[in-house]
Design a protein that fits this description.
Layout lengths: L1 E3 L4 H10 L4 E3 L5 H6 L7 E4 L9 E4 L2 E5 L4 H5 L2 H6 L1 H7 L13 H6 L7 H7 L3 E6 L2 E6 L4 E3 L2 E2 L6 E8 L5 E8 L10 E10 L2 E10 L6 E2 L1 H7 L6 H13 L11 H23 L10 H26 L1
Parallel strand pairs: 1-3, 2-3
Antiparallel strand pairs: 4-5, 5-10, 6-7, 6-10, 8-9, 11-12, 12-13, 13-14
Helix pairs in contact: 5-7, 8-9, 9-10, 10-11
Length: about 325
């Protein structure tokens, strides 16, 4: 097996074209465990972290551009990005341990194709786009169209994600991501829920609701979105959101959670994420979580909340 570390996108495309059966990686936090578990080795491993474009984060002309190999820790420590997209930051901050987050990336989390990927629902809810490169040039697709099933993507042989494009959130917009796991840390989501809301005073003017770990791919919930738009988030609306989220589920039944359990928890998480997103949308921008110390305090509080939620959800599921 060969190892290569290109420094440009074009060089990486050439290496992939010249080495059939090769694989790209950023942090290799999924690739290495897969190889150790017995999967066949690629003919060549192409390390993308030396390509500046893939590890940079920039904000210009109303758009964020996030390199696909940017470490998750770079995003969770970027005060401006966290302030604009706390939901995406929450998802990125749940990819493994603090140590792993120095290697893991949004691109790797997406292209691994796991239905339980933490950063993916929030990226879809925020309308993120993936810029894909290959021997035939570059193309841009919605993040929602990248994963086609567990461990499968729409990328052709020799293609890889270069960066993500995320438009600035409209004024009075907030997002949130919650997940349920058997443990408070270092675990895979049994259910994940991302919500993005834009508010016009006390009324929801736009909504996105996306679930993770309850189907072969992340699932958008249009019935929940329809219930939210035009509402003032009264109890009836929140109940409709929960019901729509549960109805959208098509989960597996395994040792980590039954079909009934995941379906019930999806409704609970979706409703709670709506409330958090609405609170954030109605705050002034300078009151968002906008520095590293605040973010880490919020993450510790979220971990405690997830632990309590797990206990509560188990009781409700019974």
């Amino acid at each position: 097996m060969q190892y290569a570390a290109p420094t440009t996108v074009d060089e990486a495309c050439s290496l992939l074209a010249d080495n059939p059966g090769s694989r790209v990686f950023a942090g290799a936090t999924d690739l290495v465990p897969q190889m150790r578990s017995g999967r066949s080795e690629p003919s060549a491993m192409v390390d993308l972290k030396r390509i500046d474009r893939l590890t940079s984060v920039s904000h210009a002309d109303g758009q964020w551009t996030v390199g696909a190999a940017t470490p998750a820790s770079d995003l969770t420590h970027n005060a401006e990005f966290v302030g604009m997209y706390p939901g995406i930051s929450e998802g990125a901050g749940l990819i493994g341990s603090d140590q792993i987050q120095n290697r893991s990336s949004l691109g790797g989390n997406l292209c691994n194709g796991s239905p339980a990927a933490d950063s993916v629902p929030a990226m879809i809810a925020s309308g993120a786009r993936a810029v894909i490169a290959g021997a035939g040039g570059q193309r841009t697709v919605s993040v929602a169209d990248v994963v086609t099933g567990p461990g499968r993507t729409s990328l052709a042989d020799g293609e890889f994600i270069v960066e993500f494009e995320i438009d600035d959130a409209p004024i009075s917009t907030g997002d949130a991501y919650l997940r349920m796991t058997p443990r408070t840390e270092m675990d895979i989501a049994v259910v994940g829920a991302a919500v993005r809301l834009t508010m016009d005073g006390d009324t929801v003017s736009s909504a996105s609701v996306v679930l993770g770990a309850v189907a072969p791919t992340a699932v958008r919930v249009p019935d929940a979105e329809a219930a939210l738009v035009g509402s003032r988030l009264d109890d009836e609306t929140l109940a409709a959101v929960a019901a729509a989220a549960s109805a959208a589920c098509n989960p597996i039944d395994d040792k980590r959670g039954t079909v009934e359990y995941r379906t019930q928890v999806a409704g609970v998480l979706a409703k709670r994420a709506v409330v958090i997103a609405a609170e954030r949308a109605q705050k002034e921008p300078d009151l968002h979580v906008t520095n590293t110390h605040q973010l880490h305090r919020q993450r510790r509080a979220d971990r405690l909340l997830v632990g309590r939620l797990h206990v509560a959800a188990r009781c409700v599921a019974r």
